[in-house]
């Protein structure tokens, strides 16, 4: 049996060089469905956001698009295909991912394991922060906040050592707990990861998209879960499944940088993704176009469903540019 705290267990299960879940050849799309996989409308909406950022930057000679947690390059490829030629000629696309460069990625795209520094443009992190390894804590019967340890082969849990001063301070600020059995997921490493990513922008917009919560509605029982082969499963950190933790969206916000929080439903609507049905008259005048539009409307509806993908939070932070006026 191997017992350890959740952060190192998650790190090994997801990112181990030999057996980590995110090193597997099928990639995330083999196990769960993200907005990128649900519809090409998502990539087209991100491309429209990139054009707004380009305009706010004054259309620089080099425009960066940084896809953090790029998977197998699906979003990167979609955005490259959706921007006009005159923008693509100035575009410097980056895929940030630990896995090897996927086959078929456009040659202009840079593939790296590190967020680039000193670039200007749009940094977009779709379902990245929920995979940053985090520890968990629980208040014991004596009122002491202790780390939760996990047996990596089975997912069984037990209480370990009292938490560090840093994690106790984070909990006191963002997720106060006091009663025996109260749970907390310590977001300090995730906050630092997002701050590091945002700091890579010289100018532009940084966007984090994820399931999450804020101080007014912290989950009582934690959010850690697993995904395998398209199904939600127990989060056993043995490398066989994805292990995710929902994001404390208020804690990740980088201070002194203009920020806006909205839902995916509202963000995509502002970017032209509505999910509305096409006019019925089109069915008579152009049945093929009607069916195509109907299919697109169904995909858009899935992306903006308030009970599904539309409930994702979007945290937008403007770095040395005026806030965009589309929201």
Please describe the topology of this protein.
Blueprint: E1 3-5, H1 6-15, H2 35-38, H3 40-56, E2 63-68, H4 74-82, H5 85-88, E3 91-96, E4 110-112, E5 119-126, E6 136-139, E7 145-151, E8 157-162, H6 165-174, E9 183-185, H7 188-199, E10 201-210, E11 212-213, E12 225-228, E13 231-233, E14 242-244, E15 247-248, E16 258-263, H8 264-270, H9 281-285, H10 287-304, E17 313-319
Parallel strand pairs: 2-3, 2-5, 3-4, 5-10, 11-15
Antiparallel strand pairs: 1-7, 6-7, 6-9, 7-8, 10-17, 12-13, 12-14, 16-17
Helix pairs in contact: 3-4
- Helix and strand run: EHHHEHHEEEEEEHEHEEEEEEEHHHE
Q: Which structural category do the helix and sheet elements fall into? A: alpha/beta
Counted beta strands: 17
Task: Give the overall shape.
Answer: globular
For the CA atoms, what is the radius of gyration? Answer: 21 Å
What is the arithmetic mean of pLDDT? 91
How many helices? The count is 10
Beta-strand share of residues: 25-35%
Main β-sheet, spatial strand arrangement: 4-3-2-5-10-17-16
**Termini gap:** 51 Å
Please mark out the parts with pLDDT under 50 across 5 or more consecutive residues, or reply none. none
């Amino acid at each position: 049996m191997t017992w350890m705290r959740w952060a190192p267990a998650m790190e090994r299960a997801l990112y181990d060089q030999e057996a980590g879940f995110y090193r597997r050849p099928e990639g995330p799309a083999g196990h769960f469905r993200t907005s990128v996989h649900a519809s090409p409308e998502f990539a087209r909406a991100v491309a429209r956001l990139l054009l707004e950022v380009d305009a706010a930057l004054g259309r620089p000679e080099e425009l960066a698009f940084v896809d953090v947690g790029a998977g197998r390059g699906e979003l990167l490829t979609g955005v490259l295909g959706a921007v006009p030629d005159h923008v693509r000629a100035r575009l410097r696309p980056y895929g940030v991912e630990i896995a090897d460069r996927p086959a078929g990625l456009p040659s202009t795209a840079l593939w790296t394991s590190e967020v680039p520094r000193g670039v200007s443009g749009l940094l977009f992190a779709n379902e990245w922060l929920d995979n940053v390894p985090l520890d968990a804590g629980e208040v014991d019967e004596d009122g002491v906040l202790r780390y939760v340890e996990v047996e990596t082969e089975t997912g069984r849990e037990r209480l370990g050592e009292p938490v560090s001063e840093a994690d106790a301070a984070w909990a006191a600020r963002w997720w106060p707990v006091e009663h025996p059995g109260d749970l907390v997921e310590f977001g300090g490493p995730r906050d630092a990861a997002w701050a590091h990513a945002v700091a890579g922008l010289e100018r532009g917009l940084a966007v984090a998209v994820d399931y999450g919560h804020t101080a007014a509605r912290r989950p009582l029982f934690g959010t850690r879960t697993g995904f395998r082969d398209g199904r939600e499963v127990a989060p056993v950190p043995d490398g066989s499944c994805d292990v995710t933790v929902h994001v404390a969206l208020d804690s990740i916000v980088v201070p002194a940088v203009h920020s806006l929080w909205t839902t995916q439903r509202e963000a995509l609507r502002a970017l032209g993704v509505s999910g509305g049905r096409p006019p019925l008259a089109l069915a008579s005048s152009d049945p093929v176009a009607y069916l195509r539009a109907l299919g697109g409307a169904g995909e858009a509806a899935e992306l903006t469903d308030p009970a599904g993908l539309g409930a994702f939070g979007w945290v937008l932070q403007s770095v040395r540019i005026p806030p965009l006026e589309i929201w």
